[in-house]
Design brief:
It is built from no helices and 10 strands. By secondary structure, the chain is mainly β.
Length: 174
């Protein structure tokens, strides 16, 4: 795989000039991270959502489904999770935007690299059209303000994910 990156776009987005010579059906054009207002960013509050966006081109008809996906890794290289676009069908040639919204209160504080990928699935077979590990970087900031979830504990919380889950507590009268 040979990649060239265009400079001068600022550090919040990357434009791919040429990607993966083995895929003649797919061309990644750009990738970036957007805050909840749609502005490019590299840092978000832990409570705020953000969007990962890839712009790409499907260059010809194929007998499969090209699925954009993002792989989130910690600063130590541990894969936290992979997000795939769901329920896709075969798409006609053209230009596409793939946006994935990561809700607030899912990821723990820290810096994460985001791998940008596209995979073609044909039946039970697949081909990776494009994958650039660590193409994007996002820092999740915890303001460490006392709230109903941390009970005043404003220290670093361990783990990759820190979701706010639904809880039900009842008194057991048995």
């Amino acid at each position: 795989m040979i990649n060239f990156f265009e400079s001068g776009l600022g550090e919040d987005s990357v434009k791919l000039i040429f990607a993966n010579t083995s895929s003649r059906a797919f061309l990644s054009r750009s990738a970036r991270i957007l805050d909840r207002f749609g502005n490019p960013t590299k840092s978000v509050d832990i409570h705020e959502p953000f969007t990962v966006e890839m712009k790409y081109e499907i260059k010809k008809n194929i007998d499969g489904v090209i699925v954009p996906n993002y792989q989130f890794h910690t600063a130590t290289g541990v894969c936290g999770f992979v997000a795939n676009a769901p329920n896709l069908k075969e798409m006609m040639p053209g230009f596409y935007n793939a946006r994935c919204v990561i809700p607030g209160n899912i990821m723990n504080e820290g810096t994460y690299s985001i791998g940008v990928a596209a995979t073609t699935y044909i039946g039970s077979k697949y081909q990776v059209n494009y994958y650039e590990r660590g193409l994007l970087t996002i820092t999740i900031r915890d303001p460490k303000i006392p709230d109903a979830y941390n009970y005043g504990y404003c220290q670093t919380v361990p783990g990759i994910l820190r979701p706010r889950l639904m809880w039900e507590l009842t008194k057991d009268n048995s």
